[in-house]
Design goal:
Helix content of chain A: 55-70%
Low-confidence stretches of chain A: 473-479
Mean pLDDT of chain A: 87
Low-confidence stretches of chain B: 19-31
Number of helices of chain A: 19
Distance between the termini of chain B: 27 Å
Oligomer: heterodimer
Shape of chain B: elongated
Largest sheet of chain B: none
Number of helices of chain B: 5
Distance between the termini of chain A: 49 Å
Structural class of chain A: alpha+beta
Number of strands of chain A: 10
CATH superfamily of the largest domain in chain B: Cytochrome C biogenesis protein
Number of strands of chain B: 0
CATH topology of the largest domain in chain B: Helicase, Ruva Protein, domain 3
Chain lengths: 648, 133
């Protein structure tokens, strides 16, 4: 019954898509009518898909094993929360989630962006529905989640045990909101290019969608890296895994787009480039989907590989990318930029930002698909591992980090003035002195590059903070003697949010550098009762115990940690044995110590000894704190939108 | 010096500072013991039986045998580059995490730097052109 209704709903959604596409194109003489009907079918698309998604979730909750997807990815005694997240823990369900979010964004535009010109809205509905239609066809024909089977099995296979984890509850939806959110931006870009006449002020329209997508993509990537950090058990937070790279590509182009939009909104320059970035961002989302879903790449994420699916997505992807690029190049809204070129201007710095972003984008793309291309063309098999990316990305990142905090201080068109120079001068002095201090305290006489890389992070944070000091005070002097709290309230939200995001990136750099340069690690055999010394921590192994979970049993290794004789919290890394499948996953134990982590995982186990990997990762929490700040900065910006909306 | 000059001077100085240090090499002190050296080396190698894991992280038979081989070679007094080269010769390019610089990876290695150099060139072209006009 569920399967039948589900299938019916999918077909109904296809029908709605076709109708809304049709209505958005015909009735061109009567735009009001055209809009009314195409919006109606746009909204009903969303409601129908939402209902079918709820239906699939319901099938998972009641464990209806007559549906193949449920049977393959759920089991009777799995915890309820994983039954619900199990819906997107597999190919079919996650594609349905993808479509749900696609329709959700279409729905949001129709319902909330009421101030858009009619013809633009119509075009947006047209593009958005076309994307939805193509993915719906893909789902119905190659990965239908509502396929029945007979006889009905007693129990299912259960969700991939690695995915039965709290981090995975929220990671895929957030990542998808980011990925799919770019579809709206793409639709806007196409809608604008489809109009023959010149359109003003479209930068303001797409701003908030860019922020929403970019913000949730950032959050999704951070949570994903957190999951990899403690669940995969290697203690790394970024592996340059092809699928991670696939999510990084739209993130990078999105970052470039945000900056380019700021430029475009302030003085209307680089319109074409901004449009191209909008198209590129969604194209990379599609490319990411293709890479993940087709199984052409092997990675920890590849839980679905079926060549026919890959072909479908490849076709969808190529059509959308090629059509949009053709449209872009035939769209003649290009003016030659005759204005003065000023090196120290915000515009130039944004262009440099965009250039560096595109460079890193090309590097990541090249490193990800080069082995595939080489294999296809010549049959040579090579590996492009983290070493390549670290080596090539580092110089680019250094440039980004040096220039990033300077840009927002510079005037748009004016010559640089003494006030800004004074501010930058003080920031440089502050940063350099902190670097020297750090060198003396941490390194003493030895030389370590890490100090300078941390210095880059400090540099970004210092300027971001100085920027937020009230202007009327620092114009007189940098002393805090005539401190005025009122001035703080005058900081406008775009400025605040941009500095918070930049500072978050700075924190992230510090965390990454400190945790990779100063991490201490011991892979060792520990006997029962033995103590291991790591830095100033003493780790003592006191024995094994067992715990029983809902669908798993935990073998718990108990450790006690002392910091110079003082006892800290107990640590309990686990081996989790899933009853049904017999899969064993490693659950790391993480002890927070200020901004550091003490990280313990267990390898082989014997009666009276175990192999454990114990590490102290200094400042590693800053990585995710930085990520959190970046998302927080976006939230500040979006709250500002909301309040503005109410004021109008 | 005016603030402007001072600023430019410092900017100039710090740029050199960072570009200079960006040429980082990996240095290893002589007294690291064999097991630590083994970890360093095994992180440079890919487990060719697994999906995207390096030899250090993986527990496959391949990785176990490679780890044992590295320890063996280290105790015989061979150094890092010889051991990696031996394994490279035996298992091909796929075993190296960092692709070797050779004909079929030329594009991979050269491309990023070409783009950067082009960018710098373009910027200086604009600056010079701007100064003339």
């Amino acid at each position: 019954m569920i399967a039948f209704i589900g299938n019916l709903l999918l077909w109904a959604a296809i029908l709605c898509c076709i109708l809304s596409i049709a209505y958005s194109r015909i009735y061109s003489k009567n735009p009001i009518r055209s809009i009314r009907y195409s919006s109606l079918f746009g909204v009903s698309q969303f409601l129908i898909i939402l209902f079918s998604y709820i239906l699939l979730t319901y099938a998972f909750i009641i464990s209806d094993f007559s549906i193949v997807t449920v049977w393959k990815n759920s089991e009777l005694d799995m915890p309820l929360v994983y039954k619900i997240t199990g819906v997107w823990g597999n190919h079919e369900g996650s594609m349905l989630l993808w479509i749900l979010i696609l329709c959700l964004f279409g729905f949001l535009v129709i319902v909330f962006d009421t101030k858009l010109p009619r013809n633009i809205l119509r075009n947006i509905i047209f593009v958005q529905s076309t994307i939805t239609l193509s993915f719906l066809m893909f789902v119905v024909f190659t990965s239908n989640p509502f396929i029945l089977q007979n006889p009905i099995p007693q129990d299912g296979f259960g969700l991939n045990t690695l995915l039965q984890d709290p981090g995975l509850i929220i990671h895929p939806p957030l990542l998808y909101i980011g990925y799919v959110g770019y579809s709206v931006i793409y639709s806007f870009a196409i809608a604008i290019m489809l109009e023959k006449q010149h359109i003003d002020g479209w930068g303001k329209w797409i701003e908030k969608w860019v922020y929403i997508s970019w913000g949730s993509l950032t959050a999704g990537i951070c949570i994903g890296s957190w999951w990899a950090y403690y669940e995969l058990g290697w203690g790394g937070w970024w592996f340059w895994d092809p699928v991670e790279n696939a999510s990084l590509l739209p993130w990078i182009t999105g970052t470039a787009l945000i900056h380019s939009l700021i430029h475009f909104n302030s003085n209307g320059r680089h319109q074409s480039w901004t449009l191209l970035l909008a198209i590129l961002s969604f194209s990379f989302s599609l490319l990411g989907t293709f890479l993940v879903r087709s199984g052409v790449l092997t990675s920890v994420h590849s839980f679905a590989s079926d060549p026919s699916r890959g072909l479908w997505i490849l076709i969808i992807m190529s059509v959308f990318i090629i059509c949009s690029l053709i449209l872009f190049f035939s769209y003649s809204e290009r003016k030659l930029d005759k204005s003065d070129f000023i090196l120290f201007s915000r515009g130039t710095f944004i262009q440099i930002n965009n250039y560096l972003m595109m460079t890193s984008c090309i590097v990541v793309l090249l490193g990800t698909i080069y082995p595939l291309i080489l294999d296809a063309l010549k049959g040579d098999i090579i590996t492009v591992g983290p070493q390549y990316f670290n080596l090539v990305m580092t110089p680019i990142l250094i440039l980004v980090a040096i220039l990033m905090p300077i840009g927002p201080n510079l005037p748009w068109n004016d010559r640089i003035n003494d006030f800004i120079l004074k501010k930058l001068f003080i920031s440089i002095v502050l940063t350099l002195s902190m670097i020297v201090l750090l060198q003396i305290i941490v390194e003493g006489k030895s030389f370590n590059l890490a100090v300078f890389f941390i210095g880059l992070g400090i540099w970004i944070i210092v300027i971001s903070i100085i920027d937020l000091l009230p202007r009327n005070i620092d114009r007189i002097s940098f002393s805090l003697s005539n401190f005025d709290l009122q001035a703080f309230k005058k900081i406008n939200s775009p400025r605040l949010s941009s500095r918070v995001i930049h500072a978050g990136f700075g924190l992230m750099i510090i965390g990454i550098v400190a945790a990779s340069a100063y991490a201490e690690n011991k892979d060792t055999r520990i006997n029962l009762g033995q103590e291991i010394q790591l830095n100033k921590f003493t780790i003592k192994y006191i024995g094994v115990s067992a715990e029983i979970g809902e669908n798993y049993d935990d073998l718990v290794m108990n450790f006690e940690i002392y910091e110079e004789g003082k006892k800290l919290e107990k640590m309990q890394p686990r081996k989790r044995i899933f009853r049904k499948s017999g899969d064993i996953t490693t659950e790391a134990a993480i002890n927070r110590y200020f901004f550091d982590h003490i990280f313990v995982t267990v390898g082989e186990i014997d009666a009276d000894y175990i192999y454990a990997s114990i590490s102290h990762k200094p400042l590693v929490r800053l990585i995710w704190l930085g990520g959190f700040l970046m998302v927080f900065g976006i939230v500040i910006r979006l709250i500002n939108y909301k309040t503005k909306l109410f004021r109008d | 010096m005016t603030y402007k000059n001072r600023f430019l001077f410092f900017l100039f100085l710090s740029l050199f500072f960072f570009i200079g240090i960006s040429d980082y090499g990996e240095t290893y002190s002589a007294e690291v013991d064999n097991s630590e050296m083994m970890i360093e080396i095994s992180k440079e190698l890919k487990c060719i039986e697994c999906d995207g894991q390096n030899v250090y992280e993986s527990n496959s038979n391949f990785s176990k045998s490679i780890k044992a081989y590295i320890l063996d070679q280290l105790s015989e007094g061979n150094d890092r580059s010889t051991i990696i080269e031996n394994i490279h010769v035996r298992y091909g390019d796929a075993v190296l995490m960092k692709p070797p610089f050779q004909q079929n990876t030329l594009f991979l290695w050269i491309m990023p730097f070409l783009i950067l150099i082009f960018g710098v060139g373009f910027l200086s072209y604009k600056l010079i052109k701007n100064k003339k006009s």
